[in-house]
Amino acid sequence: MSVILYRYDASPFSVKIDNILLLKNIPHEKVNVANMLPRPEITDLLGVTYRRIPILAIGNDIYCDTSLIASALERRFPTSQGYGTIFPNKKHGGSADTGLLKAFAKYWADTVLFPLAPLHLPWDKFPPAFIKDRSTFRGGPINVEAMVAQRGQSLSMLSTHLSLIEEQLSDGREWLFDTELPSLADVSVHFVYAWIKPFRGVDTLFDASTFPKSLEWIARVTAYLGRLKQSRPEVPKITGKDAAARITAASFEPYNIVGFDAREGARLGLKSGDEVSVAPDDSARNFGTVGKLVALNREEFVVETKGSAGLTRCHFPRVMFTARLAATAKSKL
């Protein structure tokens, strides 16, 4: 069962999935895509107009958003088959708090913590094409001067959030949820602070006298992931054309694995076979992926999409994503 990751090196969320794949020791290949549109490897060949990166294909199933990618990798590559886990047992006994870990990663790390970090990018140095691309992504024009002016407030909030990590680590635990090994929580917070650490103007945030345990934890996670990376072969690169050919020719999970929850469908005004548009609720709302709704449960939507390479099944999380009848979605644009 092939695993193909679409990513680019400067994408912090790509790094998050790189690290999850490391923890689980899943062999995979990667397609390096551009850091802004167009991305014909995805939109044209696969028919997937979701514009965030990364996306990940397991066989013919394409998973969008790192929250669902993480869940899919854990479910489809379980420890019973020799893979690692992002939900290790607690160090002093008991299984991991999987639901809480997922909620922590999505609602706090991804949604509250991470958005503070991009303000520290050198927006005043980026070319106009990049600013235009990210403005389209955000759904409105980016005011570079305003972004720069918010850095002090952002740095203060990043410090406030780091104080919560310091408090969590105050009892001397090794990992955030006191697990035997790093968990989804560790990689979901670590990638944010590790990403911004080299940025100019943020050095005062990483004050060892203020956050000693947090900085030790960041270094510990970095070292742990570094050792894993050194022990694994380099991830092979493949072209978008080759990846699309393999994805569209591969088998997919039977629809009954996800199933179709008629009660949830009725609540959403959807039924199996509807043509829907699925998009995030926050950024990139205007980049809905249109396809036939073939599965729906409390965790995900699954739609059939068709690109020039053939048919695929595209999975989206229920949390912070909305599926609308395609005709209704078009009328809202």
Automatic annotation (TrEMBL):
This is GST N-terminal domain-containing protein. It comes from the Eukaryota. It comes from Mycena albidolilacea. It holds the Pfam family DUF7962. Residues 1-81 form the GST N-terminal domain. SUPFAM superfamilies: GST C-terminal domain-like, Thioredoxin-like.
